[in-house]
Amino acid sequence: MEKMPYQPDLDRAMAIPNSPTTTSDWRLALPVMTGSQVILRELEVSDATSLLAMLTTEEVSRFISPPPTTVAGFERFITWARAEREAGRYACFAVVPQGMTTAIGLFQVRQLEPGFASAEWGFALGSEYWGSGMFMDGARMVVDFAVDTLGVRRLEARAPREGE
């Protein structure tokens, strides 16, 4: 994603505007989706330590918006992500390899307009999992979720230019 939607300076209760948003069970809890290599599930506060280790390395963080730099920062991000999901504006899945319980990355989808007619998605995986096929396995499930559950008709992705 061009810019990580979580902003630490907004760590306070946010008013939820009256806008038409998709209403379904996903707002109560994200589904657990199982692929051939990964399981996608709701982020848990206990994922903060592994996400810090996986997503703050120089080779990973150069491709994403600056991630939180502490376990506490990731805990706040996870709390924020869950609140945004409950409000119907954002979905963020932990990526867990089959046979493991530790999150090694994430996929996120955020609405660009009320109701998710258009949305932006992004991902980050720990570099030791690059080239493993885990991205493709998870990406298929996230795209299906976005289209079938959220009702997305246009899904965008952004990539930073070299040096950004």
Structure characterization notes:
- With 164 residues, this protein is α+β, with helices and mostly antiparallel strands.
- The chain is built from four helices and six strands.
- It has helices at 48-55, 58-61, 71-86, 134-150, and strands at residues 33-34, 38-42, 90-97, 105-111, 118-125, 154-156.
- Helix 1 (48-55) crosses helix 3 (71-86).
- It is globular and about 35 Å long.
- The model is unreliable at 10-23 (pLDDT under 50).
Number of helices: 4
Largest sheet: 6 strands, mixed
Helix-strand pattern, N to C?
EEHHHEEEHE
Mean pLDDT over the residues:
86
CA-atom Rg in angstroms? 15 Å
Strand content: 15-25%
Helix content: 25-40%
Shape, principal axes of CA atoms: globular
Straight-line distance between termini: 12 Å
Structural class: alpha+beta
Q: Spans of 5+ residues with little confidence (pLDDT < 50)?
A: 10-23
Kindly state the number of beta strands: 6
Write the topology of this structure:
Layout: E1 33-34, E2 38-42, H1 48-55, H2 58-61, H3 71-86, E3 90-97, E4 105-111, E5 118-125, H4 134-150, E6 154-156
Parallel strand pairs: 5-6
Antiparallel strand pairs: 1-2, 2-3, 3-4, 4-5
Helix pairs in contact: 1-3
